[in-house]
Design brief:
Helix content is 8%, strand content 41%. With 180 residues, the chain is mainly beta. The strands form two sheets. Strands 2, 3, 5, 7, 8 and 10 form a six-stranded antiparallel β-sheet that branches. Strands 1, 4, 6, 9 and 11 form a five-stranded antiparallel β-sheet that branches. The longest helix is centred in the N-terminal third of the chain and has 9 residues. The relative contact order is 0.25.
Length: 180
């Protein structure tokens, strides 16, 4: 099994933080907990977070994905962030609430294992809505575990019956144009 970390590539909208636009994006996707996005209004959100596409899992089987946030509570000492993950058709895949205390910590949503494909991973969108207590967000990322298709385990298209393929040496398999 292979693993890749996907970081935010774009943000659709934001409000209630001390930064916005590309500055906010750079603070939550730079793999640096020293750069932060601080909630500075009781009502806040970051919507339409799109993650970078990866060719690493093209043709692979997606085993699971996990949304993670590194952050800490603000002034109240405790905070929550609602995480809503949507597929490319804007159907809700996951809705979880993460809890943070006064110390920096990584919180993870439940691991998703069903109905995942490279197209869904590449087109997913994440909405984050903190509660009114105040949150400092340092990093947002998705961990994707996948199994790469290898060797002769790849699917062969348009073969009705393998019994009709006789005496083909593995070195010359590329010479087959059609199979009845």
């Amino acid at each position: 099994m292979a693993t890749i970390i996907l970081r935010p590539e774009a943000i659709g909208s934001s409000s209630g933080f001390n930064s916005s636009g590309s500055t906010l994006l750079n603070r939550i996707n730079d793999n640096d907990t020293g750069t932060t996005a601080v909630q500075n209004q009781t009502s806040a959100s970051i919507g339409g977070i799109n993650f970078e596409d990866s060719n690493n899992y093209t043709g692979a089987t997606i085993d699971d994905l996990t949304i993670s946030i590194i952050g800490k509570a603000g002034r109240a000492g405790a905070a929550t962030v609602q995480c809503e993950l949507f597929n490319p058709d804007e159907e809700l895949i996951q809705d979880r609430t993460l809890s943070f205390g006064g110390s920096t910590s990584q919180q993870n949503c439940s691991t998703i294992t069903a109905n995942l494909t490279p197209a869904i991973i590449n087109g997913m969108l994440l909405d984050l809505t903190p509660n009114t207590q105040g949150i400092t967000i340092m990093e947002v990322f998705v961990t994707v575990n996948f199994t790469v298709a290898t060797g002769y385990g790849n699917k062969v298209n348009a073969v009705e019956s393998i019994g009709k393929v006789n005496t083909v040496a593995t070195g010359s398999i590329g010479k087959i144009n059609t199979v009845d």
